[in-house]
Each structure stands twice: as C-alpha cells, then as structure tokens.
C-alpha cells in the first residue's frame, strides 16, 4: 500500500514537472497592445539600408589571415574611417528566422516557436519594417515573406527569387547575392522614370533590406574555411560598395542614409549552425552614415575574449551589441538625444510591464493579486 502511494506520488511529481516545462517554456512571453514610444527629437537619418550577409561569422570577416587575402576591403575601410564596428551577440537557436526577428523586431523568440519549425511566425510581433513608411526587401523567399505578413497595411514590398533558382544556384551560391545587387540597381534606375515610386523614395523613414543568402549556402556546401566562402565575402563586399554608391548618387549625397552591415548567425567550422558555439553566436556589425559615429583610434579596450588580438583590431574601438541595451556607442548625437532615446526605451519596456500586469490581474483572484510597489 505504501509502495503504491509512493509510486503515485512519484508519478504526480513527474507529470507536474513535465507540464510545467510546457507552461514555462512553450508559452510566449510576448505581449501586445503597448503604445509605441517615440523620441521627440528629429531623427538623425532619413532612411536605413540594412545588409544581412546570412551565415557570415564575425571571425571570418574580421580576421586578416596569413594569406593576406583582403576579403572585404570596403567594409574594412568603413571600420577604419567612416563607421563604427563591433560584435553582435545572437542566441540559440542560431537559425535564420529567429536571427532576423532579433535584428528587425528587437527580441529573441521563445521556445514556443519550435512548434512551428522556426519557419513560421509563432506569435504576432511589431518590427522596424512595420513602423517604417515603406520597406523594400530583396532576397530569399524563405525569409522575406514573414516580415511582409507581419506588417499591418501594405507598405512592406518584397522582391524574391524563386525557390527553383535557390536550388539552381547551389553550384555557385554567390549568384543569390549578385541577383540581389542587380535587382536593387535596376530598381533605382527604373525609379527615376516612375513618379509614384520617386515620391515614395523621397519620403523619410524608409528602409531598404538586402538579404544575402550566398555566404550561408556556400558555408553549408563548402565550409567556412573554403575558398568559396571567402570569395563570396569578396563578392558581397564589392556589392555593398556598389549599392552605397548607387544610393548616394540617387539621393545626391544628402547625408540622410544610415547603413548597417551584419549577419543573422555565424557558422561552425564544419558548416553547420543552430547551436550556441561562439562561431555561431558571434556576428559582425558594421554601421556608418547618418547619425553614426566615425571610427575611433584607441589604446584601451577591455573585452574578456581574445578576438581583438586575433583580428589585429586592438587599435579600433569595438562596440558590442546586446539585446535590450541601446547601443549608444554607435550614435553620433547630442547627450540630449541619447538621454531622450534611453527614456523612450525605458517607457517602452514599462508599457510591456503594464500590459503584463493587466493580464495577470484579469486572470487572478483579486485577493491573491498584490501589485509590485
Ligand atoms: Zn541564416
């Protein structure tokens, strides 16, 4: 009898623990209905160009290897002169969709997303694309549609190649990137003869997103130490340089464009990603243009890793980015602007707390509910 009771108790404990895992980890902590907060001062940029080199690990981009092959002379010149750089730390699972959600919506998805296989949006969320005036995107049909779908209204426009082309490009994956660069160039040259498009492009708060899948595909096929991976970086670097010059021409060097070059996740030496090894979680971040600080020479940098030495970048101020913390180090702006930005960010977080509290109050018996001081 005692044995049976013990058995039942043991069973109950296990069932409770098992259910609690789903309750804790598989229920999205995201809340909705917050009032969007804005900085009341004028924005330092009129538009943003976001380059995401899918699957590009920080190490490979930043390391100047012994062969002295300069994989990314343009990006390097930005780091040395006109921009700021650092490592952006992504999290597990190091997959494309959660990586892009973190970049564009500013949060890491919870494990509730596993039920959707990391392809579909498990929950609705707001994003910088949704808050933009217009967003034009070019790239993979696996990535772009989810942000267009998540946006209210029809101001997010996607230009994707076909799934067949994605397979076809497997012999030379860098074609996926040259496709994007060619499309963007064609877009701006056709815009000159299209009045509707022209007036949209001249508005403020526009985003241009270039999703570059070639490096990731080459990394899977040939591994990140391969010639193919390195050559693809060269192609992307040259493409970025070209797009910057097209944009600057189009907007007549109005100093209104901010540029960000980054990656959604890295890759292990054997060509995989998904887990939490530094080769997968450390992604490069290089920003320049309107509102961004230019390069700063320094002799004192404190990081508890050895990358600065390995990359021979001790002399260039490195600014890392973590979720939830405004990367003020990247901003070239007044103390007032930075303070207002921090304030707006804090109020936004406070708004989430309020929505969460209201939800809790609704589902809890009033005598059991004690709000925090
Ligand atoms: Zn990816």
UniProtKB/TrEMBL annotation:
Its domain of life reads: Eukaryota
Pathway, according to UniProt? Glycolipid biosynthesis; glycosylphosphatidylinositol-anchor biosynthesis
Which top EC class is named for this enzyme in its record?
A: transferase
Keyword Transmembrane helix in annotation: yes
Where in the cell is the protein located? Endoplasmic reticulum membrane
User: Can you list the GO cellular component terms from the UniProt entry?
Assistant: endoplasmic reticulum membrane
Question: SUPFAM superfamilies, from UniProt?
Answer: Alkaline phosphatase-like
Biological process per Gene Ontology, one example term: GPI anchor biosynthetic process
Q: Where is the signal peptide?
A: none
Alphabetized, the UniProt keywords read:
Endoplasmic reticulum, Glycoprotein, GPI-anchor biosynthesis, Membrane, Transferase, Transmembrane, Transmembrane helix
Q: What is its EC number?
A: 2.-.-.-
Q: Name one GO molecular function term.
A: mannose-ethanolamine phosphotransferase activity
**Membrane topology value:** Multi-pass membrane protein
Q: Which PANTHER family match?
A: GPI ETHANOLAMINE PHOSPHATE TRANSFERASE 1, PHOSPHATIDYLINOSITOL GLYCAN, CLASS N
Q: Which family does it belong to?
A: Belongs to the PIGG/PIGN/PIGO family. PIGN subfamily.
Q: What does this protein do?
A: Ethanolamine phosphate transferase involved in glycosylphosphatidylinositol-anchor biosynthesis. Transfers ethanolamine phosphate to the first alpha-1,4-linked mannose of the glycosylphosphatidylinositol precursor of GPI-anchor.
Record's protein name: GPI ethanolamine phosphate transferase 1
Q: Please give the organism.
A: Paramormyrops kingsleyae
């Amino acid at each position: 009898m005692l044995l049976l009771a013990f058995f039942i108790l043991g069973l109950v404990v296990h069932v409770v623990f098992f259910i609690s895992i789903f309750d804790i980890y598989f229920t999205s902590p995201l809340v909705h209905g917050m009032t969007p907060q804005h900085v009341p001062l004028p924005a330092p940029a009129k538009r943003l160009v976001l380059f995401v080199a899918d699957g590009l690990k920080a190490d490979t981009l930043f390391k100047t290897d012994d062969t002295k092959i300069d994989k990314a002379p343009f990006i390097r010149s930005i780091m040395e002169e006109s921009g700021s750089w650092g490592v952006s730390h992504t999290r597990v699972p190091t997959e494309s969709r959660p990586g892009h959600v973190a970049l564009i919506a500013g949060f890491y998805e919870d494990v509730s997303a596993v039920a959707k296989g990391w392809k579909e949006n498990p929950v609705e969320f707001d994003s910088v694309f949704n808050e933009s005036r217009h967003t034009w995107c070019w790239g993979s049909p696996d990535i772009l549609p989810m942000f267009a779908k998540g946006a209210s209204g029809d101001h997010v426009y996607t230009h994707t190649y076909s799934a067949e082309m994605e397979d076809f490009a497997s012999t030379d994956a860098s074609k996926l990137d040259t496709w994007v660069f060619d499309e963007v160039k064609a877009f701006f040259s056709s815009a000159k003869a299209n009045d509707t498009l022209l007036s949209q492009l001249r508005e403020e708060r526009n985003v241009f997103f270039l999703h570059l899948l070639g490096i990731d595909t080459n990394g899977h096929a040939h591994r990140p130490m391969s010639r193919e991976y390195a050559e693809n970086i060269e192609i992307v670097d040259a493409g970025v340089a070209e797009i910057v010059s097209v944009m600057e021409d189009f907007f007549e060097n109005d100093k209104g464009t901010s540029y960000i070059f980054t990656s959604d996740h890295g890759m292990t030496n054997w060509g995989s990603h998904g887990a939490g090894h530094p080769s997968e979680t450390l992604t490069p971040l290089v920003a320049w243009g309107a509102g961004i600080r230019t390069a700063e020479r320094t002799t004192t940098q404190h990081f508890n890793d050895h990358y600065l030495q390995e990359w021979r970048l001790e002399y260039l101020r490195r600014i890392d980015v973590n979720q939830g913390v405004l990367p003020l180090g990247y901003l070239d702006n007044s103390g007032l602007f930075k303070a207002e930005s921090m304030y707006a960010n804090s109020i936004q977080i406070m708004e989430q707390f309020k929505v969460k509290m209201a939800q809790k109050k609704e589902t809890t018996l009033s005598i059991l509910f004690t709000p925090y001081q």
